[in-house]
Specification:
Its cofactor is Zn(2+). The chain is an alpha+beta fold. The protein has 21 helices and 50 strands. The chain binds zinc ion. Zinc ion binds next to loops.
């Protein structure tokens, strides 16, 4: 050994001590104690020495070649300490222990996973140039690393097919996708060694419907032989930021049910290579559906690099709230920039591009690195094979096993049959060369995703290794520099809202339709449905609604990142589905309500019930229809889709200024209020009036009310005050009392009910302060602001994906004219509405008893169509001392802590909010619940801001080729909830991470699933209606009926079966917020639930617990289910296959 080398080995030895410690800790972190071979001390010593030698070898190499890597290892030692703190006895960092005093953590956390939040605290986000792998580092090897265990390469051919983006779903299918499938049959059929994976069932099912039996048999044979694998098996590859878990699960059920029915297989691996950031809610659903592995790709480049350095790119992803390993799923994170060939064979894209044979000279695509691929020949095969092997080996060193996963594909690949030929034949020549040269210690072949994972698990278990565990999420994504993809959290907000409207009507209709079929079978007594009820047509409408909602969860749909024409296509689908589902809802309600079922007849052109609003087009907001009243009572039917008794305010538009509402069953008059319908901000209609009344709606019930014109002056009318600081104001309110006209108010405007009082600015009408009955007071100032984008000629600017605000940050919204403020007061609700040039803002307080009166409703109607490169935000500035921490929900399923970090640019501190965000300190919590997805941030302590709409003139270079300029008049709706926090509250529901409070959950439920109001045209007494109340009482407060979804008949296609999927979610809730006032529902800390009790008097003929997409039954739960009992742990979603009798 040369002296110099000896010296470096000695230096290596010194570092080795430090780094060995690190390695040991790394091992501990994986939970992989060195449990190898014989137990004797000598064999243990041998083992240790062997590993020591290996590590010295490795270190020597590292030291002599790469000082930078050693430095990062030293950094990771620091990080290891953080991890150990997390994972050791003190299972949370000391800071968060302080924040949680009084809320005892549940046991079993000693093996808790590392958290992404801590990785964020640790990373410098400095983005140094890594050389060939620009965002990474130089990877070195000696060449003998694979002598013992050969490198095993799985090349996985794939084609990423967006169900709509630049083209519509149908156009992509016609132009590209169907050719891919047709060629697949031929080309995979030619050679059994060839493989392919496919993800989007929306496309697959469309093609299936067109092909003959012979082709279908070929597909089944390819699946059976393992040449073709369906990965994830969802309807689409959904967005994970804006989608609600209802829709995420529904599209997975739709895909899995289709696969099961037509192909009889069950997906086992997840594939999410293009969604712009990744959520653990999705992984929870995948695991729950029976998948055991998954691949993700779009993760912040700095996180990827860090994980590559740690060799933790493969990890067990665990739910942060889970104290067990039940939710763990094996996750592979792709290490490089993209999922295309240049960024998947290894770290050097210039080299990897030469192995994308679709880019051979003369073909349509080229290599931007200017070195084209070469066809593989006898002359060049050796040189080409070694060049490729070098990339494979470098990539392999980022992982702990010598099994290597290499995707082969890109967007809409394998369309032409020649592409199949060039890829498969050239790669086969390379693989053959490897096979002929055992000294290279490499075995490469085409594989599916499951081929890879099976081999990986085999290799890991033979070494007794467990991958490290990780909790948290992968937002907000950046692909390069400071290009954070936080723009799409808000882009096209009109359709993000429409998405939730379809979701609500789909869920409500599914449940009512399932209940209707059950009632009909019971009514008939022979298991048959009622004749004349179009069950099959309705089921097809439901299926179409499911599929259109599913399609919209695609990562270019709900994200707002598709071309304008494609947005119109999606919008039209959502709109039509809403209309179609309403037909099913009305028709089901019709039969359920009839006292004399013999009177039922279905006439689509003359429906018995009409919705109380109409939507004119896919880009229009709903408009209330006007009910004509007379002295004859008119029936109004309200459906409560919630599993809770709801005290709701129902508002309908009527044609007279005096009306009474009575409960049709008891004749009891309802508390009601007549308000003006405004033609202009200060001009009330003289023809149309709004009648609002307080309704007590039992869970899942249909309640009938009679509305009658009353004698003049008998109804409670709202009273109005106008505040206007500008010129003279013309007010026309014939039927209403007006005060304070043109007179600036000296003091703040105020609204109050029994629970809460609020104060607003007399200049703007915007909220300033809140006080609870308990005495808790919080300053909460509402502001509106504009963001612009970067102004320099060569600077990157905001677009559909990216948020790149100008240096000046947000500018306070101002207008030269002072805004008009209108205050209304009445016995049902009071509100303050302010008219600004770009938006109308309303703050409303309902006069309701109980928890329903505790939240403050905020609504905005925004129109920024006159603007250029601007984004409008609503900001709450409070005195809640939350520091830099706040919480946002992930997919409406769980809350995730966020930390606003100054080392990150402003746009990186924005996160997705699909339904909730809160700030809290020791004494209080301020929760903003939302009815739509938006971007949210807390840029300074006490602040919370949401982006309402964005109008951007330019493309942001992510392939869309357009700005976002098709803005609509857009509505957004929120509930603001201020709550006391106490340290004494008993822990309920195993809360070890932060959850919404019980009141927040209930408020969110009413916000997302408000009652549906329908009216009966003509006289009420023509037919007798009786209310429908399927449940004796509300479900427990923390149990949410996600869906009751009728399943397709096994024999007869497109026909409802007797079975339904019952989906329940037991919510986790905060243990420090005392429910005040107490909700009427109950909750318990027992995990065991009796389903017959919950749904009494409904009877289940059979209940079988199953995986979340109903593909397999849960053995463990079989015994429980026989007794109709079930285990439902906090946070868990459970699925049951039930027969409703
Ligand atoms: Zn895509």
């Amino acid at each position: 050994m040369k002296k110099g080398r000896l010296f470096s080995v000695l230096v290596g030895g010194v570092f080795c001590l430090v780094v060995l410690l690190l390695y040991h800790m790394l091992d501990l972190m994986q939970g992989a104690e060195l449990q190898r071979g014989g137990d004797g001390p000598s064999s243990q010593l041998d083992n240790d020495l062997y590993h020591l030698r290996q590590k010295i070898d490795k270190l020597e190499h590292l030291l002599s070649n790469n000082n930078r890597l050693v430095a990062t290892l030293r950094d990771s030692l620091m990080q290891q300490n953080t991890f150990n703190k997390e994972m050791g006895k003190a299972n949370v960092s000391s800071e968060s222990v302080d924040r949680m005093t009084g809320c005892r953590l549940t046991g079993g956390e000693t093996d808790g996973p590392a958290q992404m939040l801590d990785v964020y605290d640790l990373l410098p986000f400095d983005n140094p140039d890594g050389g060939a792998w620009k965002q990474g580092f130089d990877i070195q090897y000696r060449g003998n690393e694979w002598d013992q265990e050969p490198l095993e390469v799985f090349l996985v051919p794939h084609s990423h097919n967006d169900p709509g983006w630049i083209k519509t779903f149908d156009n992509y299918y016609q132009d590209q996708t169907r050719h891919i499938f047709n060629n697949m049959l031929t080309k995979l059929g030619e050679d059994r060694r060839r493989k392919m994976i496919w993800a989007e069932v929306s496309y697959f099912s469309k093609w299936w419907a067109e092909i003959d039996e012979q082709k279908r048999d070929m597909v089944k044979r390819l699946l059976a032989d393992g040449q073709l694998e369906l990965v994830t098996g969802g309807w689409v590859m959904p967005d994970e930021a804006n989608s609600h878990y209802f829709a995420l699960l529904d599209q997975l059920i739709e895909g899995h049910q289709w696969i099961h029915r037509h192909l009889g297989v069950k997906p086992s691996s997840g594939w999410a290579i293009d969604p712009f950031g990744h959520s653990p809610s999705m992984t929870y659903l995948l695991k729950g559906a029976g998948l055991s592995n998954m691949v993700i790709q779009r993760v912040h480049y700095a996180v990827k690099k860090h994980f590559a350095q740690q060799r933790t790119l493969e990890f067990l992803w665990r739910q942060s709230w889970d104290t067990s390993s039940r939710s763990d799923i094996m996750c592979h994170m792709m290490p490089f920039y993209s999922y295309d060939v240049p960024h998947t064979c290894g770290p050097n894209p210039a080299v990897c591009c030469q192995f994308d044979f679709h880019r051979l000279p003369g073909r349509r695509v080229t290599c931007p690195w200017k070195i084209p691929p070469q066809p593989i020949t006898d002359d060049n095969v050796q040189e080409r094979a070694l060049l490729l092997l070098d990339q494979y080996r470098q990539k392999s060193l980022l992982f702990r096993s010598s099994v290597l996963f290499v995707p082969l594909g890109d967007d809409f690949r394998f369309v032409e049959s020649s592409e199949w030929d060039v890829q498969f034949t050239n790669y086969q020549k390379l693989f053959d060369y490897f096979d002929q040269h055992p000294e290279l210690h490499v075995k490469a072949r085409f594989g599916t995703l499951s081929d890879y994972f099976q081999s990986l698990h085999r290799r890991l278990s033979s070494r007794g290794e467990t991958p490290p565990k990780l909790g948290g999420d992968f937002f907000t994504y950046a692909d390069r520099d400071d290009h954070y993809w936080s723009g799409y959290f808000t882009s096209r907000p009109f359709y993000k809202r429409l998405d939730r409207m379809l979701e609500a009507v789909l869920r409500g209709t599914e449940i009512l339709f399932s209940l209707t079929l059950a009632e009909m079978r019971r009514f008939r007594g022979n298991g048959q449905l009622v004749e004349g009820f179009p069950a099959k047509e309705h089921f097809q409408r439901l299926t179409e609604g499911r599929r259109n909602l599913a399609l919209f969860q695609h990562h270019d749909a709900v994200t707002g990142t598709a071309r304008e024409a494609v947005v119109v296509d999606y919008g039209t689908r959502l709109f039509h589905s809403i209309l179609n589902l309403r037909q099913v809802l009305q028709s089901s309600a019709h039969w359920l309500l009839l006292l004399d079922k013999g009177l039922y007849h279905h006439d689509q052109s003359k429906p018995f019930l009409q919705m109380d609003d109409a939507i004119a087009a896919h880009d229009a907001l709903p408009q209330k229809t006007v009910l004509t009243l007379s002295s004859e009572p008119r029936s109004v039917v309200v459906f409560n889709p919630a599993e809770q008794l709801q005290t709701s305010v129902v508002s309908i538009n009527v044609d007279c200024a005096d009306a009474v509402v009575v409960d049709a069953e008891t004749g009891r008059p309802m508390v009601a209020q007549i308000s003006a319908v405004w033609e202009k901000p200060s001009v009330a209609s003289t023809q149309v009036f709004q009648l609002s009344f307080v309704a007590e709606l039992p869970p899942l019930s249909l309640v009938v009310f009679y509305v009658t014109e009353a004698r003049p002056g008998s109804a409670h009318r709202a009273e109005y005050t106008f505040v206007h600081h500008g010129g003279p104001l013309s007010v026309q309110t014939e039927h209403f009392q007006v005060s304070g006209l043109d007179r600036p108010a000296e003091s703040a405007l105020s609204l109050s009910n029994k629970q809460v009082q609020v104060w607003s600015s007399p200049d703007t009408g915007l909220l300033q302060k809140l006080r609870l009955k308990s005495g808790l007071v919080r300053q909460v100032q509402v502001q509106f602001l504009w963001y612009g984008t970067r102004s320099g000629r060569n600077q990157d600017k905001s677009g559909a994906y990216l948020f790149l605000p100008g240096e000046e940050g947000a500018q306070l919204y101002s207008q030269s004219e002072p805004p008009l403020i209108r205050v209304s007061r009445g016995p049902v609700f009071s509100d303050i509405t302010t008219y600004f040039r770009h938006f109308t803002h309303t703050l409303r307080l309902y006069q309701l008893e109980g928890h329903a009166g505790k939240s403050l409703e905020i609504s905005n109607t925004v129109d920024i169509r006159s603007e250029v490169n601007r984004e409008l935000v609503m900001r709450l500035r409070s005195d809640v001392a939350n520091g830099n921490r706040f919480f946002t929900d992930l997919n409406g399923f769980q809350m995730q802590q966020r930390r606003t970090l100054t080392k990150l640019p402003l746009q990186a501190n924005f996160y997705p909010m699909s339904s909730a965000a809160f700030l809290q300190d020791q004494a209080s919590r301020l929760t903003l619940l939302s009815a739509q997805s938006q971007a949210v941030a807390s840029l300074r302590p006490g602040e919370l801001e949401v982006v309402l709409d964005r109008r951007l003139q330019q493309d942001d270079n992510r392939g869309l080729g357009q700005g976002v300029t098709d803005n609509k008049v857009t509505a957004s709706l929120y509930d603001l909830l201020l709550e006391d926090r106490t340290a004494e509250a008993a822990e309920v529901g195993g809360a070890s991470v932060e959850h919404l409070s019980l009141l927040a959950h209930l408020t969110s439920l009413s916000l997302s699933h408000p009652p549906f109001t329908m009216s009966v045209p003509g006289g009420a007494h023509a037919v007798t209606l009786r209310p429908f109340r399927p449940l004796r009482s509300s479900l427990p407060c923390d149990v949410h009926l996600v869906n009751l979804r009728t399943l397709e008949d096994q024999q007869e296609a497109q026909t409802p079966s007797r079975e339904a999927a019952l989906l329940l979610h037991r919510k986790g809730f905060d243990c420090r917020a005392v429910p005040d006032p107490s909700p009427v529902c109950t909750w318990s800390d027992r995990q065991e639930v009796e389903l017959d009790d919950l749904f009494s008097p409904l009877q289940f003929g059979s209940i079988r617990r199953s995986a979340l997409t109903l593909l397999q039954e849960d053995e463990e739960e079989a015994e429980f289910a026989q007794q109709h009992k079930t285990q439902l742990r906090p946070m868990e979603i459970a699925a049951y296959r039930v027969e409703l009798d």
